[in-house]
Design goal:
Length: about 80
Amino acid sequence: MDEQIICDELRKFLKSGILAEGVEIEKETLLKDLGIDSYSVIEMVLFIERKFGVALPDQELTPDNLKSIESLANCTMNCVND
């Protein structure tokens, strides 16, 4: 598992059920700029935990770690490597 794979999977997840059709997202795009709410962010966290078999500790779920798919993927990698 690497950060790029996590970013790619998160992008697919967002495009398949959270974002409106045609909305583009890059790994560094701020989720708040896309109108993604806290409920959808929690869905993303649960998706990562199920897809990659990793538990993200509550103390890691900070605004900085949840601001983009890149920051969430980085947080996931840090949790895996700890």
